[in-house]
Write a structure and sequence with these properties.
By secondary structure, the chain is mainly beta. It has one domain: Porin (Beta Barrel). It has 4 helices and 24 strands. It has helices at 15-25, 27-38, 58-62, 77-80, and strands at 92-101, 104-108, 112-114, 123-124, 137-148, 153-160, 164-168, 181-196, 201-220, 235-257, 260-267, 270-281, 292-302, 305-313, 318-327, 334-337, 346-349, 355-365, 370-379, 397-407, 412-423, 426-434, 442-452, 455-465. The protein has a 14-stranded antiparallel beta barrel with strand order 1-5-6-8-9-10-11-14-15-18-19-20-21-24. Strands 2, 3, 4, 22 and 23 form a 5-stranded antiparallel beta sheet that branches. A two-stranded antiparallel ribbon has the order 16-17. Strand 5 and strand 6 (153-160) form a beta hairpin. The termini are far apart.
């Protein structure tokens, strides 16, 4: 099987070889599209396992996401467990934003290249440290919930960004042959319904209409450049694709006593059939035949998620919270590219593993107007060491969070939250091969280590009560 970046090389100038460049290179844009999406992420640089974004409400951020499936204290329960709408006291509309300030510092740990230009001998190649690949990012969310039948039946609507990634390194950094810029955005529109069966049990469900958009920019080395490749001789690839797909989610809320709530929520996996294009430019000599714009198609399979939450009122003012989530990331055994021309599928093993997230927290009602909350959150990464890329510099991570709510009046309330988070040290050690099977065949070994430095989230939400 060809490696991710394989395509024919240079030096053979006859027309048949140029046709071979064009025909085989068309495989690469499809693969790059898959990598830009499936190997991404949010964490995501700031998210829970892979590229799922847990920060879907301000109150949730302030609790460290503890009790998300059980707390049901505002309309954001539409996302965490729609059955919780039956615990709301009145119609509500929420408008929130979470602003992330992540920071990561990469260091080159001996990256080398072996190409015809280096006479096949591994040598260092030029490249800076990439700078901080994470810019300030805002994650918005909107929720609305409306009761019927004296609060026994509820309908709701949530607009969220449940998966995302934004990684942008300096163009000439040492990991550019793996990634320069990777972006993934999803927008989820979820009409929901909830019904209180009795005073102990409520159920809820929602349909998830989801839009996904992905982009990847990466470099390809000029393997024939004397002494080795450099930013001045690199080619550039830009890959884009988008799609709409549908999923669903189900939830149940059980109150074994007047002081305890248990919530269980299932969010289905969603498969996107992305269609888009790849723009190739900057290749010179015989490789210039590969420049152009090409159709691209790939699958984006997002994992199923199971969440269990508990909320227990220790006193009328103090509620203790816990939450456990399981992510079905092991479905990513491989990346598969489909071709309309009838060519065999192009398959790249990934071997993702399932991941988990655990949260504990508490909420304290200080006065009728003020509520305080805090929490701790830990999640594991689904990425595997030998497959980790610079597009997804993801490892296990830890959060500490605090938050508060202030009721300005019977109709208006504000929520605030702050979270500090860190990753374990990120290690990347991977090899990308180029122009395999030609006189221009070469390889780049990208070795780097990254540390998370003082990353933060600020969150604000406006609640309107009717």
């Amino acid at each position: 099987m060809k490696s991710l970046m394989d395509f024919p090389g240079t030096q053979i100038l006859d027309s048949m070889w140029l046709q071979r460049v064009r025909s085989q290179y068309r495989v690469v844009p499809h693969v790059l599209l898959v990598m830009s999406i499936l190997v991404s992420t949010c964490t995501e640089e700031t998210n829970a396992g892979g590229f799922f974004l847990p920060q879907q409400s301000t109150q949730g951020v302030g609790r460290g996401f503890a009790g998300g499936a059980a707390m049901a204290s505002d309309a954001s329960t539409i996302f965490t467990n729609p059955a919780g709408m039956t615990e709301l006291e009145q119609a509500e509309a929420d408008f929130g934003v979470q602003i992330m300030f992540p920071k990561l510092e990469f260091q080159n740990r001996g990256s080398t290249t072996a190409t015809p230009g280096t006479l096949g001998v591994p040598v260092p190649y030029p490249g800076n440290d990439g700078g901080n690949p994470f810019g300030t990012t805002a994650i918005p969310n909107i929720y609305g919930a409306q009761p019927y039948m004296d609060g026994r039946l509820w309908t709701g609507l949530g607009v969220t960004v449940p998966y995302g990634l934004s990684v942008d390194y300096d163009d000439g950094w040492f990991g550019r042959y793996d990634s320069i810029e990777t972006d993934l955005l999803t927008v989820n529109i979820a009409p929901t319904i909830a019904y209180r069966i009795n005073n102990r049990v409520s159920v809820g469900a929602g349909i998830d209409f989801q839009y996904a958009d992905a982009q990847l920019t990466t470099a390809t080395p000029n393997t024939l450049a004397p002494g080795g490749p450099s930013p001045a001789t690199d080619g550039l690839f830009d890959v884009e694709g988008d799609a709409w797909s549908v999923g669903f989610n189900l939830g149940i809320l059980v109150k074994p006593s007047s002081t305890t709530r248990l919530g269980l929520h299932y969010r289905s996996g969603i498969s996107h059939d992305l269609e888009g294009k790849t723009t190739v430019k900057g290749l010179t000599g015989p490789l210039a035949a590969a420049n152009g714009v090409f159709d691209a198609r790939a699958d984006l399979d997002l994992p199923a998620i199971v969440s269990f939450g508990v909320a227990h009122e220790l006193t009328p003012s103090l509620t203790l919270l816990g939450d456990f989530q399981w992510f079905d990331w092991s479905t990513f055994k491989e990346l598969r590219v489909r071709f309309s021309s009838g060519q065999p599928d192009f398959v790249i093993p990934q071997n993702y593993q399932d991941s988990n997230a655990i949260s504990i927290g508490a909420e304290y009602e200080m006065t009728p107007e003020w509520a305080l909350r805090a929490g701790f959150h830990y999640d594991t990464t689904p990425t595997v060491d030998q497959f980790r890329t610079t597009s997804v510099p993801d490892t296990d991570n830890y959060w500490l969070a605090i938050g508060a709510s202030y009721s300005m009046s019977e109709m208006i309330a504000l929520d605030f939250a702050y979270a500090y988070f860190r990753w374990d040290t990120v290690n990347v050690d991977l090899t990308r091969t180029f122009f395999v099977g030609t006189p221009a065949s070469g390889a780049v070994n990208i070795k780097g280590e990254a540390d998370n430095v003082d990353s933060h989230i600020l969150s604000l939400n406006l609640r309107l009560l009717f």
